[in-house]
């Protein structure tokens, strides 16, 4: 199985590949491009670019990776570098921007689910990438 890293630098040359995977750019904010899936029942958002850390002014890469799977090629968001940077160097990030909470799946269930909350407005999602895209778009984080 082969994987291909799609970054902000090689995005223009990868646009044809992304179109074949039904992924289109919907918005560009500074050096960050937000992508979405088209023609699928679930609408996924992805972010590619360089986000500036508001605490130390370091630029952090956000990118997607194309994976070849048995059911066909897929796009996966890679935000681990950003998440690790914020958790290890800036613990105050979780108090000011994105908080992680483990909650019950439903009221009478013992299953647990992780939800990420925007500390500014209360937006929540089960995907870290969706909450990160929300704070970039709505609150101007890292631009």
Care to describe what's here?
By secondary structure, the chain is of the alpha+beta class. The protein has one domain. It has helices at 11-20, 80-89, 93-96, 128-139, and strands spanning 3-6, 23-29, 32-37, 45-52, 59-69, 72-78, 98-104, 112-118, 124-125. The strands form 2 sheets. Strands 1, 2, 3, 4, 5 and 6 form a 6-stranded antiparallel beta sheet that branches. Strands 7-8-9 form a 3-stranded antiparallel beta sheet. A hairpin with a 7-residue loop joins strand 7 and strand 8. The model has no long low-confidence stretch (mean pLDDT 90).
Order of helices and strands: EHEEEEEHHEEEH
Number of helices: 4
- Average pLDDT: 90
Counting structural domains, the number is: 1
Rg computed from alpha carbons, rounded to a whole number of angstroms: 16 Å
Q: What distance lies between the first and last C-alpha atoms, to the nearest angstrom?
A: 35 Å
Structural class, please?
alpha+beta
Total DSSP E strands: 9
Shape by Cα distribution: globular
Spans where pLDDT lies below 50 across 5 or more residues:
none
Major β-sheet profile: 6 strands, antiparallel
Percentage of residues in strands: 35-45%
Helix content: 25-40%
């Amino acid at each position: 199985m082969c994987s291909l890293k799609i970054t902000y630098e090689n995005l223009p040359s990868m646009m044809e590949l992304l179109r074949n995977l039904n992924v289109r750019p919907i918005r560009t904010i500074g050096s960050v491009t937000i992508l979405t899936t088209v023609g699928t029942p679930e609408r996924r958002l992805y972010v590619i670019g360089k986000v500036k850390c508001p605490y130390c002014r370091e630029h952090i890469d956000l990118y997607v990776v194309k994976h070849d799977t048995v059911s066909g090629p897929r796009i996966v968001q890679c935000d681990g570098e950003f998440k690790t940077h914020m958790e290890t160097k800036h613990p105050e990030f979780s108090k000011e921007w994105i908080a992680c909470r483990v909650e019950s799946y439903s009221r009478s269930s013992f299953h647990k689910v992780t939800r990420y909350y925007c500390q500014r407005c209360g937006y929540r999602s089960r995907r870290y990438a969706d909450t990160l895209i929300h704070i970039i778009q709505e609150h101007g984080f890292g631009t």
